[in-house]
Amino acid sequence: MSKKLTPREKDYSKWYNELVIEANLAENSAVRGCMVIKPYGYSIWEKMQAELDSKFKETGHENAYFPLFVPKSLFEAEEKNAEGFAKECAVVTHYRLKTDPEDASKLIVDPDAKLEEELVVRPTSEAIIWNTYKGWIQSYRDLPILINQWANVVRWEMRTRLFLRTAEFLWQEGHTAHATKEEALAETEQMNNIYAEFAENFMAIPVIKGRKTDSERFAGAEETYCIEALMQDGKALQAGTSHFLGQNFAKAFDVKFASKEGDLKHVWATSWGVSTRLMGALIMTHSDDKGLVLPPKLAPVQVVIVPIYKGEEQLNQISEVANQLVKDLRAVGVSVKFDNRDTHKPGWKFAQYELQGVPVRLAIGPKDLEKGTVELARRDTLTKEFVERDSVVEKIQDLMVEIQDHLFGKAKAYRDNHITEVETFDEFKEVLKVKGGFISAHWDGTPETENKIKELTKATIRCIPFEGKKEEGKCVLTGEKSSQRVLFAKAY
Amino acid sequence: MSKKLTPREKDYSKWYNELVIEANLAENSAVRGCMVIKPYGYSIWEKMQAELDSKFKETGHENAYFPLFVPKSLFEAEEKNAEGFAKECAVVTHYRLKTDPEDASKLIVDPDAKLEEELVVRPTSEAIIWNTYKGWIQSYRDLPILINQWANVVRWEMRTRLFLRTAEFLWQEGHTAHATKEEALAETEQMNNIYAEFAENFMAIPVIKGRKTDSERFAGAEETYCIEALMQDGKALQAGTSHFLGQNFAKAFDVKFASKEGDLKHVWATSWGVSTRLMGALIMTHSDDKGLVLPPKLAPVQVVIVPIYKGEEQLNQISEVANQLVKDLRAVGVSVKFDNRDTHKPGWKFAQYELQGVPVRLAIGPKDLEKGTVELARRDTLTKEFVERDSVVEKIQDLMVEIQDHLFGKAKAYRDNHITEVETFDEFKEVLKVKGGFISAHWDGTPETENKIKELTKATIRCIPFEGKKEEGKCVLTGEKSSQRVLFAKAY
């Protein structure tokens, strides 16, 4: 763990990859594009899950579980959805292996165990779920259905990166069914808002809410709302999406309900999800050249106590103070670890906890015992101070709030400073090259122009922001009329 | 929901299937052998997960996540494990679908997207995990590794039944690595004990702890410890297993560590798991002809309040009392639902909550308002009584404990009454036919005899109980010498 990370300035991408590995968050596996999420990374994901899950339940959603596999005939039922995901899906074709007749230590696929119908490993679950909802919905009394699922999904991406783009990832997917279009749209918006609140208040990641253009929309959706974040290298990251699916899936699976008035109508749908990709957003929003920086609300360990001692007697004296602190901090809901391992030196521990982003480190040595102090180090500012032992608990309670706010404020200042309004395509290219970030520009509303800009600059329209001011202008590429600025950026 | 269940006496298997569907626990899906776990069923599973997860964490385990897929070459590395699971595994062979050239509305497997190496959908994760641990373990300082994973697994079973045997199921699988055999054996036993405590204290299911015979052991294990429960129809159900894997996986994947003394040794391993099968055990231990019976510790809703009223004014008066009760019950940690829907009649609601196993039902009508009472019905005993409104909260707090104990006691009495010692094979067959349950009999210790008995009676050795008294005797089939009785039963 003495290895230093490549500085972000030098190679941001390399820094990211090294950090994920060195901080024990995740690693690549023997399966192409699939990751192992290590305990420390998974414990952060569990914190995210718990918070999101309670937000979902507060808004009336229940969890359920649907099959991993989607029979091909169901998969292809909603045409656009199928088209969007067919190109990169894992397909199960057989249900047995047998001993290789040429080498008894090997196994081969048993040709006699071919499935009648191939099964697609779910890349997303609309098809299997709407085929199920068909049996659940007869009347308006059966609506709304508000269900969420925590699951693994597989998309056979060609270029993968830990957390950001992996062949298998973990996510939650909400799938709701409604009697009216208005209700479904309200749900779509509500869930996008929940994602935004979660990102900002819990992960300390400022996001912009907006809707996607036709070409960036989820395959099978009528509208995709999203939250977009900005990473430290000036690239955007889509952190969550909420889709208004219209009646597309209800029509594909023939899901109708009898209204109060007695006539049969197709059901309206939404789906929404966030994934382990959020781990990538978390890392790239707050961390620095020394490693991960975690907002207190997400940190599996908020405070670590490291004893600095020579000999057992000193350790015993320090342990007495430390154990009392552990008790007092836990009593006020702060998670704390006393690392009294004798297998590692204090300097190694300091570096390790910096690498792993523990928000506050307390060090206690013989001098601290004399003076009744502890040394307190903040991970976010890398500052140190001595604190009276009696005021440590209160100080840390305050710090938990202060650090959370500070990280959000810092990320927001960076983000706000990286939204640049441009009027010409030269400016557009110049800003993209020199500064990065979001470019707020007029666009004529056509997919052709959107594509052309993507070809020329690799920047895509991240969203049409909900809070963008309505303003007449001219498209940055074609000079055609435009009534609102949209946000362009290079993106993960 | 007015449909009555087939009585257990008439057809136990049909009763079970109907109950799972009618109580909204789960249903079959469009995918052969895969189930949909519905919100009510899933909320019970979530309760189990939360309790188990905290027990795992209390004993030092952490959660992590490993890939869904196992490359064929890893899958076959541990020979016995591979042999055990190869016969029933889902195999991914391709990573893309394409439009059918003969019918543009259809998709076919793209022959150009064949994987170089087939991927097995994990039936269990020893192979992928031990291949990963290889990179994590160099020295004794890296041990022990105590990891658990919550995941879905797939075993291509030919005959499936909701919860009991499904092609895909949810489970947790613990995988630990240790420096010594003793430590690994202690872990194996500790986890089996945790399962037993969980089953008995949380699910109110009495279990017998023991070890499996060679032929019933997990493929790749040196020892399999288990907990065995008894269902109401006299058949046994394996409710959890904990495996001592010896050095089998460490050898298959070449995982060695440098000991304190500096020499290289193979690592010792355990794995242990329980699955959604526990839902089946829960149902078949406590439920009756009216539906599910839930122990309070597992019930998503512990108390339901049903108003009995004519007209809005009565409803308003009742609601006032009910809402106060809801508040008071929640304040003492009891989960409660006030079902004031006007779309369903009280009788329908009574039947529905009986079907879904809600432990306590309160009904409040106009007469109760006058008298200051509520009608309290217990699901487990199907008894009713009137309770003074002022003592309802205390009464219910007591009942939560009493019902939990009563269910365990009842199940234990049944189970204890269905362990029959036999001395002859005629007795063996007679007991199996007339009474069912566990048969405690001497066995000569050979797989041949075990197999012969299975062939003749369909009964298998469920376990060699840890607490069985050592006792000389003669094998029930062969008359050979035996030093301990083992437990036979027909099993799920």
TrEMBL record, chains A, B:
Keyword Calcium: no
EC number: 6.1.1.15
Domain Aminoacyl-transfer RNA synthetases class-II family profile per the UniProt entry, residue ranges: 27-295
Compartments it resides in: Cytoplasm
PROSITE patterns: AA_TRNA_LIGASE_II (PS50862)
Subunit field text: Homodimer.
Protein name, UniProt field: Proline--tRNA ligase
Species for this entry: Mesonia mobilis
Designated gene of the protein: proS
